[in-house]
Amino acid sequence: MRIRPEMLRVYGVTDASWTGRFTLLEQVEQALKGGVTCIQFRDKRLESEAFLREAKRMKLLCEKYQVPLIINDHVDIAVRCGADGVHVGQKDMEAKEVRKLVGEKMIIGVSARTVEQAIQAEQAGADYLGVGAVFGTSTKMDAEKISLERLRDICQAVNIPVVAIGGVQKNNFSELAGTKVAGAALVSAIFSAEDIEEECRQLRSISEQIVCKS
Fold first, then answer.
1. Are the C-beta atoms of residues 107 and 70 closer than 8 Å to each other?
2. pLDDT value of residue 88
3. What is the pTM of this model?
4. CATH code of 82's domain
């Protein structure tokens, strides 16, 4: 599978912090029903084998809705569970090394905070970029905020799609208009919502409007 910009409109990043009434898989399905266009499975607490088991279940669920599953950080698990892609940070393995392990068909996403990092990631073989934190974030304490101007500069500097991440919520999503982003990655905006399906439906509508204005 190759990445297409429309796959990044509403990019849901899992966080088990808000499970309770529903399991994580149930929450993910609610998001998929609401129109989320991509799911990234991220969980820093699970041991490797438990993560793999959950990833396999999530892959089957995403296949049902024909939405790509991206695994955060764990390149080996992405391969073992048959995920559509893997996302790595600046402190993780470089995209060209990831490509050697995953082959040509798997999507590779790379986090970037500067134009230089973005260009380097594209040259190394990244298929898309995750750029942020655009509005700050409570889910990644070491994430430093970047300006919308820098986000715009990054989008203009590369030929691969960019997804904005970091504190994006329904009430600030529209501020991304004009930056040329393909969409936004959302964590708490989705998974802490009272009605995840309806929240994703509204987020999808906002995202489509923003893309039309960019």
1. yes
2. 97
3. 0.95
4. 3.20.20.70
- The pLDDT of residue 138 is 63
> Residue 153 sits in which domain range?
5-213
CA torsion 71→120→8→200, rounded to 10°?
70
Cβ-contact 180, 171 below 8 angstroms: no
Q: How far is CA 55 from CA 14, 42, 62, 74, 203, in A?
A: 11, 10, 10, 11, 25
Catalytic residue list contains 21 = no
Total number of domains in the chain: 1
| pLDDT given at position 143 | 65
Q: Which of 59, 113, 140, 207 is flagged as catalytic? A: 140
- Which entry of 9, 42, 59, 113 is annotated as an active-site residue? 42
Q: Which two tokens stand for residue 143?
A: 């994430």
Distances (CA, A) of 154 to 44, 85, 88, 129, 184: 28, 22, 18, 9, 15
